[in-house]
TrEMBL record:
It holds the Pfam family DUF8199. InterPro entries: DUF8199 (IPR058512), HYC_CC_PP (IPR058060). This is Uncharacterized protein.
């Protein structure tokens, strides 16, 4: 949906047939060999002998969207409800299990039995 609604432009600047710059969404940088302005500050028309050329690719996005849920079949509606309920249940807090000995502290060790018996895990 995002790709179909966004307008984008790719502009390429060529000088002597080789690519100088490619720009997305803005104007491409030129090579600096544009024709100078005349005395009247009026730009000269580009003729066929010009060394530079520009290529512009423009894609217009869709402005009007029509989203309707009326054309969903019964199976698609069931699937939509199932996915929505599954997604919402992911955020439900889980039930805590009752641990009967959670309130009792562990026994106090008087001596370290592993050291006394010299039994070590390697």
């Amino acid at each position: 949906m995002l790709v179909s609604t966004v307008s984008w432009t790719v502009e390429k600047h060529f000088c002597f047939g080789s690519l100088v710059d490619i720009a997305f969404f803005h104007e491409a940088d030129t090579c600096g060999m544009e024709r100078p302005l005349s005395k009247d500050n009026v730009a000269l028309n580009k003729d066929s002998n010009s060394c530079c050329s520009d290529e512009i690719i423009s894609v217009q996005g869709q402005d009007e969207l029509s989203i309707s849920y009326d054309d969903l079949s019964l199976g698609q509606q069931y699937l939509l409800v199932a996915i929505t309920s599954y997604y919402l249940n992911l955020f439900q807090p889980r039930e805590q299990r009752y641990v009967p000995h959670a309130d009792y502290p562990p026994p106090i060790l008087v001596k370290d039995i592993h050291v006394l018996d010299q039994v070590f895990l390697i």
